Amino acid sequence: MLERLNRTLEYIEGRLDQHIDVAELARTAVTSEYHLRRMFSALAGMPLSEYIRRRRLTVAGAEVLAGRGSLLETAVRYGYGSGEAFARAFRAMHGVGPGEARRTGAALVSQPRLSFRLTVEGNSSMRYRVVDRPDFSVVGLKARVPLVHAGPNQAIVDFVRGADRQLVERLEALSDQEPRGIVAVCDDLDPGRAEGTELDYYHGVITSVAPPEGTTVLPVPAGTWAVFTTSGPAPQAIQELWRDVFTEWFPSNPYRSRPGPEILRTRLTPGRAEGDAELWLPVEREQN
After folding, report:
1. Smallest Cα–Cα separation from 39: which of 71, 5, 13, 72?
2. Region for 193 from its dihedrals, namely left if φ exceeds 0, alpha if ψ lies in -120 to 50, beta otherwise
3. What's the whole-number mean pLDDT along residues 219-223?
4. What is the phi/psi pair of residue 150, to 5°?
């Protein structure tokens, strides 16, 4: 998988002054567009679209400083419909407008070319199983929250704390399928996984019982799921598990992510900020 991702980086580099079709990038990587975006974000720490934008503005910045052609010609070459749009993007990355940069020779910001490599440490193993599930429903309380990569997600903390305790207890009693008990479900995530992008968060259960009044139902179609387990401090261990799944497990196994909700069941140790967690991710087998 890493070799195929590196081929997409070469493809991008050769077409910075052309339209880059993400569907074509996915074909180069021999995977789905959804999985490509997810893998790239996990490995690079930024969305694919952001990397392309930053590489274009890096190369454009060098042309601006070198005095090659007019600023409008440079803007159009790198995909901007007007000099104003180019100037805004240029300033957002470099901290200075293109005209001023050309006049003064100002220092600019550079986005280096990426290259993905596998680092073998061998100091840990990942516990997982693959499960085929028929369609099911998530029933619970729903909120729209921002994505947080590290540390507590205060929006989720506040939402769960403010939930009706009696209703949550009623929901927990309805759980009749794996993963059992109250679960945290994230859906409608941006494939690029940029920090601060919004997602649908459900605090509820997997059940076949009719939903109680005041709850929301998320129907989930049949499919394959990879189930990972971990133990340790919360939320650090869970966030590290998600990272390791995309940086270690996917590149080493014949599966790719597919659209669908992510389900997390957590059991905290009483009186301690740690516990056990089970993460369910929707996957499909890679096509050779």
Report:
1. 5
2. left
3. 96
4. -135, 140
Cα 224 to Cα 226: distance, rounded to the nearest angstrom: 7
Tell me how far the alpha carbon of residue 234 is from its chain's centroid: 20
Residue with tokens 């179609």: 221
pLDDT at 120 over 80: no
Peptide bond into 212 cis (omega under 30): no
Q: What angle do CA 141, 134, 238 make, to 5 degrees?
A: 50
For 230-242, what is the mean pLDDT? 83
Where does the pLDDT of residue 2 fall: very low under 50, low under 70, confident under 90, or very high at 90 and above?
Answer: confident
Q: Which tokens is 237 given? A: 């261990």
Which amino acid is located at 46 in the chain?
Answer: M
- Angle, CA 41 vertex, CA 51 and CA 90 arms, to 5°: 20
Place of tokens 């945290």: 184
Report whether 162 contacts 183 (CB < 8 A). Answer: no
Amino acid making up residue 244: D
Find the angle CA(112)-CA(195)-CA(253) to the nearest 5 degrees.
Answer: 75
Secondary structure (DSSP) of 187-226: ES--TT--TT-EEEEEEEEE-SSPPPTT-EEEEE-SEEEE
Q: What percent of the chain has pLDDT over 70?
A: 97
Q: What is the DSSP letter of 245?
A: I
pLDDT at 123 over 60: no
- What are the pLDDT digits (tens) for 83-95? 999 999 999 999 9
Q: How far apart are CA 83 and CA 170, in angstroms?
A: 59
- Which residues is 204 bridged to in the sheet? 140, 183
